[in-house]
Amino acid sequence: MNFDPTTLPILVFILATLMSLAQPFNNAVKRMNECAADAYSLNAVKLPDVLASALVKTAEYRNPRPGALQEWLFYTHPSVERRVKMAMDWKAEH
């Protein structure tokens, strides 16, 4: 079986297409892990105001309120707004 180098661009194109289609799902898994990390932080350290303050500072370089589609397609972390709300909900419960 011989490898034909002229098929390489086609293989690269197919691989790039598949990776692009899988990216939103990969981002969703990363966002779930980040939510779990935030919850762990809140339960371990119990400083929701500090977490919220740190998250608000990240709004300087990323949109704190992306649209649902934008977040699903491009964001690897939950929106700042959702993360701060989660911290404040945790604070209200505890």
UniProtKB/TrEMBL annotation:
Domain Peptidase M48, chain residue ranges per copy: 10-89
Record note on cofactor: Binds 1 zinc ion per subunit.
Family annotation (InterPro entries): Peptidase_M48
One Pfam family linked to the record: Peptidase_M48
GO BP of this protein: proteolysis
Cofactor(s) this protein cannot do without: Zn(2+)
Record keywords, A-Z: Hydrolase, Metal-binding, Metalloprotease, Protease, Zinc
Molecular-function GO terms, alphabetical: metal ion binding; metalloendopeptidase activity
Domain of life: Bacteria
Family of this protein: Belongs to the peptidase M48 family.
Name of the featured protein: Peptidase M48 domain-containing protein
Organism for this UniProt entry: OM182 bacterium BACL3 MAG-120920-bin41
Lineage: Bacteria, Pseudomonadati, Pseudomonadota, Gammaproteobacteria, OMG group
